[in-house]
Amino acid sequence: MPPASRTLSDAELAAFKERLCDVAEAMFAQAGAAHVSMRQIAAALGVSPMTPYRYFAGREEILAAVRIRGFERFAGLLEAAHAGTPGSAAAKAAAAGRAYVDFALANANTYRLMFDTHQQGDSADTPLGRAVARARATLSVYGDGLIAAGTPEAEARAMELLIWSTLHGAVTLELAGTTPPGSARETLRLLARLG
Fold this sequence. Notes:
Elements: H1 10-31, H2 38-45, H3 59-83, H4 89-106, H5 108-116, H6 127-138, H7 141-148, H8 153-175, H9 183-194
């Protein structure tokens, strides 16, 4: 952390907030967010106990920032996979499914914090709520494809939830070590055969 006696540039402020979020994310994932204090985060960063409060009001705000970053990266990858895949709605949905599994397996801590944690702002018109909504919208590509092909909306959305639940379950089981490596991708391959 640069000395407090000088004014930090916007880039330095942003870099420190990112570093703080990186450290907090790892600590939250390891111990659970409720078991990590601001003092512990400060100690891990090698700064005074009050320094994190210059950037965030408290632990919940840091957790929200970590989750926002995760949802934004996740949604961006799914959107890019869907938009960058030529062909049918099924091919686009399969590409988004691959991006989903790839993100979850490569970012296990982030994925767990995104989907296993709920905060007051998850469904509000807040930065966190908007990030959650964007990510959820990226998960609707399968249902959108079914609707475009003539499936009634209620049935399409039910199928969409079934696919998401199955994929989330497969990823969660693999991340927990309950199923062997590659299980989530195999589940995705089987789901693609259904569509």
